What we know:
The chain is 75% helix and 2% strand. It is built from ten helices and two strands; from the N terminus they run ααβαααβααααα.
Amino acid sequence: xxxxxxxxxxxxVLEHLRExxxxxxxxxxxxxxxxxxxxxxxxxxxxxxxxPVPRLVxxxxxxxFVARLKVAFMGGLILSMPLVLYHAGAFVWPALKDxxxxxxxxxxxAVVLFFALGxxxxxxxxxxxxxxxxxxxxxxxxxPMLSADRYLSFVGAMLLVFGIVFELPVLLVVLSRIxxxxxxxxRQKRAPVIVAIFIVAAIVTPPDVVSQCLVAIPMxxxxxxxxLLSYWLKSRGA
Length: 238
């Protein structure tokens, strides 16, 4: 639920900057506090994240400590996402009209839901499958010894990429509702969009076909879901 609009007058620029600062402080503070709390639970979280691999090693004096910091920060960032999105919406709320407010209010929760789905998809499917494929190139000749720092960077990047990728239906619905695109236009542009999706997937993933497909195929399905949701909302007159 967004804050009520208690002041209909236009705010001066300085007041806007103060509001922006306040919302940024709340957002950054929530990430920092949750990261500090999760640092206490870094060991069990690290063990859970490391399940897809046989073992992790550290090759520098500070790497084990940095690995725990990364785990805590990743967890803090993910868990604070609802609050960060709330403050982003609250900042623009006074400038929105009633119809725009309904759209933003619904979109915030949709963004949180789809981001969580993307993170779950990455951790339970994309990361294990991608690791199995990439580590398979070692065969019986090269023994895998994954450093904790590089492994967590890989996992963190995959979680972030899929969290963002899963926002595609929300983006398409919002663009459709504000009149920038139509469901028919999205359907007509399906072929070039699919080509663009594979190009983007090749850029944001490791250089192998499996990782590319693990990003591209969900993006295509999410694009189709965005078209269906846009048609459905249009038919309901929402």
